[in-house]
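## Example record

The block below lists the input lines for one assembly entry, exactly as stored, with component labels intact.
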Amino acid sequence: MSLKEEHRPLGTNALIYFFFACLVAFYLLNWKELIGVWNVG
Amino acid sequence: MEAVFRTCPVTGLKVERNAETLIMFNAVTSIVFLLVGGLLALLLLLTRWQAVHLLPADFFYRLLTLHGIAMLVAWIVFFEMAVLYFASAILLNTRLSVPYLAWGQYGLMVVGAAITAVTILVGQADVMFTSYVPLKAHHMYYFGIILFAVGAILGVCVFFATLGAARHEKTYVGSVPLVTFGAIAAAIIALLTLAHGAIVFIPTWLWALGVIPMMDPEVYRLLFWAFGHSTQQINVAAMISCWYLLGTLTVGSVPVSEKFSRSAFTLYILFIMIASEHHLLVDPGISTAHKEWNTGYFMHLAVLASMMHAFSVPAAVEVAQRKKGYTKGLFEWLKRAPWGDPGFSSLVFSVVGFGFLGGITGVIYGTEQLNIIVHNTLRVPGHFHATVVIGTSMAFMGITYYVLPLIFRREVMFPGIAKLQPYVFGTGMFVFSTAMMFVGGFGIPRRDWDITGAEAPFPVAYGPTADLALAVMAVGGLVAIVGGAMYILVAVSTVAIGKKINR
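Predicted structure tokens for the full assembly:
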């Protein structure tokens, strides 16, 4: 589907970037704890 | 049975009488099971809330078993049968093939569900939804499930036969619509799932009858989840078909890229069944390498498909809104969306709840390292209430508001209540699921009548925060039950006494 410039889904695009930023932030903030889980068992 | 058609003047769809009647019967029966499951949910919730702790232990396990069967199987599979007939006969403007077989589907599923429900209610099958062997239920419990599964297989066969007839009679041009394509994905997964159901439940039934001397618990669990979890994958494919349909019905959206969306459905068919093994991450009988391949790699290809849909559907809605002139800034399209249309608000709750609450937690809990911590805690039911209840059930509820005028030809009653219903139900379920996952973080077990260990022989201290979170979970659940009751009120009143639309 070819879209005119003003019809492109920029809002959804912004939400996708926000979602991935949260995902990366989760791993950056918790990497020590996530690796620490390996010690179980 | 001769095919008789009418044409809907609003949608232009040709509606065949057999398809219409079968959609009605399946949809109404599904709502009856939703009512049963909802009443049980109330009793279970008031038992989980330790301050109330309503039911005695034996009744709790009995009703929890029936709640699982009524909600995860009966409500959803009956509704899916309606979706399959709608996506084939109605959307492709054709007749329902082999209507006798379709009535066989309905009859077998009703009889099977009734046998299973009665066996549970009389106390002969307190085995929970999973019925893990060596727990043994009365043989009629397994027999009922087998009848139900055979009925569902017939429904899937009717769906494929109808697709074949539509193609043969050239009732559509080019490829099938995306919604029908999604329903095909759901039907293929359903066939594989029901085959596993037969593989696991027929021997278990024979074992309960005393014909087979023993069942291997490890093999049972592996095969059970190929059925038990995959049933939920049929839901996912059907739910996403409903998302695309709701987008079209509410704002007139069309998929941004058909190829992109169809590829995502194909990923489901290829990988979603393999992903079921995340239930067995703590099972010692399966090798780590096997579990890692299934849940560390293949599962993420199925998750990728969900993410593709979760962004493709909002993008389609955004494009449709922007074409109407809502182009200001990044989010004018969202602000000006039809929030008063229960179909649209249900769609948004379903996408956000399934994707961001249920989906993300599912990926996290399905990781082997983290599963060892969350396994068998309340985190797990918190996750699947987000996927199945907020995701699937809300999508089906949203579709109902359009099925009522199109198929039942009646005006939706109590439009004010219908408008509010998704907000009440969705908000309640968000609070309930989040609080449930939160208390699971304290290590509070799932499926346990005495979840805080109040009557344990040794002291178990979860602390006041856990008690508070359990109370929040209960309040959220009660709000959701009110929302569910609103849905049933609107649907049942419309079907029973709603004003007829003359078309």
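Chain A has a mean pLDDT of 83. The two ends of chain A are 52 Å apart (CA to CA).
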